[in-house]
């Protein structure tokens, strides 16, 4: 059995698989926004249809997001859905290490 490599952070992981830094930042943002979205959907006990109706996004898109599909969704769409659920997002910009 092979030992799984542990990464210190998301950036280290994306670097190891050859994703450039801009795409890495975007992927990390999408993952964090999606995590918050899923958590809020569960907290409010909403169905995918209810989220779709509230946000004006197709139910299939909501289902895909909850299932972990991040490739075809924009950050803008994630923000729109979160806003429809009564959430706000703060972005912190800092110098890279």
Could you explain how this protein is built, in words?
The structure is a single chain. The chain has 97 residues and is mostly helical. 59% of the residues lie in helices and 0% in strands. It has 5 helices and no strands. The chain has helices at residues 10-16, 21-44, 48-55, 59-66, 75-84. Helix 1 (10-16) packs across helix 2 (21-44). The radius of gyration is 15 Å and the shape is globular.
The amount of helix comes to 55-70%
State the total count of DSSP E strands. 0
What would you call the structural class? mainly alpha
Strand content: under 5%
Which SSEs are present, and which pair or pack?
Blueprint: H1 10-16, H2 21-44, H3 48-55, H4 59-66, H5 75-84
Helix pairs in contact: 1-2, 2-5, 3-4, 3-5
Key traits:
0% strand, 5 helices, mainly alpha, 97 residues
How would you concisely characterize the structure shown here?
It contains 5 helices and no strands. The chain is mainly alpha-helical and 97 residues long.
